[in-house]
Amino acid sequence: SPPAIIAPSILSADFAELGKACSDTIKQGADWLHVDIMDGHFVPNMTFGAPVVTKIRSHVDHPNAAHGKGTFDCHMMIAEPKRWVRDFQKAGCDLYCFHYEAAISSTAADTPSGQSDKKTSPKELIRFIHELGMQAGIAIKPKTSVDVLWDILENPVKEERPDMVLVMTVEPGFGGQSFMASELPKVTALRERYPDLHIEVDGGLNEHTIDQAAEAGANVIVAGSAVFGAQDPAEVISKLREAVER
Ligand code: DX5
Ligand code: ZN
After folding, report:
1. Which listed residue (39, 94, 163, 202) is catalytic?
2. From the CA of 213, how far away is ligand 1's center (Å)?
3. Is ipTM over 0.90?
4. I need a labelling partner for 29 at 20 to 30 A (CA). Which of 7, 106, 190, 237 fits?
């Protein structure tokens, strides 16, 4: 199964020192940086957009391998995921993870074919993200069944298949919420069928909840408050990694 990847969420970092927080976290042993993008529509909160990502990107070396250290894992909690693909690619995003729920309900303003009135399907969006040279992730909220993903993952066309699935273990929108163990059967079901898929969990991960998530088969671990609220972030990062590798 795929390697353990620890991805601190910079949502819980000091936004006035964001560039430094990014480089410090990588030095403390993080693999990826989890960058939460919120638009105030898809979720009831706002963070920042591509111009900020452009600036903080320069504080961290680009990954030299597909899943390498320094990957900017952008979690797009936005109502129009297709609209922002180009801007985030230009900003230095390496992995563009959109929400299934947003993709199926948004009408895209920007499509590869230039047809502005077309609905976004997850597979078209994944293809577009890949065409721009990024990895593609698809996220599901707690209320969304994992069953919506099977057709997408079974697609014989490689360019239209996601590189990662994100199973939310809190309602998206805020850091510091309690872990929902009720979401773990989704991870188990995904891992049973896809031994090599990156499966990311996000929300409420810490030293107390990591074992359940790792046991279910998650390999990409997001942690915001657990890392940035710690006295010793490096120790938390290594404990999370050990739990996944165990
Ligand atoms: C929530 C975000 C998470 C958040 C996790 O909407 O997607 O990435 O930062 O924060 P913690 O780890 O504190 O639950
Ligand atoms: Zn997130």
Report:
1. 202
2. 15
3. yes
4. 190
Question: For 149-172, what is each residue's pLDDT tens digit?
Answer: 999 999 999 999 999 999 999 999
11 Cα nearest atom in ligand 1:
9
Binding residues for a divalent metal cation: 34, 36, 75, 202
Could you tell me the two tokens for 146?
């994992």
Which residue's CA is minimally distant from atom 10 of ligand 1? 175
Atom of ligand 1 nearest to the CA of 173: 6
The 10s digit of each residue's pLDDT in 167-196 is 999 999 999 999 999 999 999 999 999 999
Written as one string, the DSSP assignment of the chain is -PPPEEEEBGGGS-GGGHHHHHHHHHHTT-SEEEEEEEBSSSSS-B---HHHHHHHHTTSPPPSSTT-TTEEEEEEE-S-GGGGHHHHHHHT-SEEEEEHHHHHHPBPS--TT--TTPBPPHHHHHHHHHHTT-EEEEEE-TTS-GGGGHHHHH-S-GGGS-SEEEEESS-TT-SSPPP-GGGHHHHHHHHHH-TTSEEEEESS-STTTHHHHHHHT--EEEESHHHHT-S-HHHHHHHHHHHHH-
User: Binning pLDDT at 50, 70 and 90, where does residue 64 land?
Assistant: confident
Question: Could you confirm whether 202 is annotated as catalytic?
Answer: yes
For the entire predicted model, the pTM comes to: 0.95
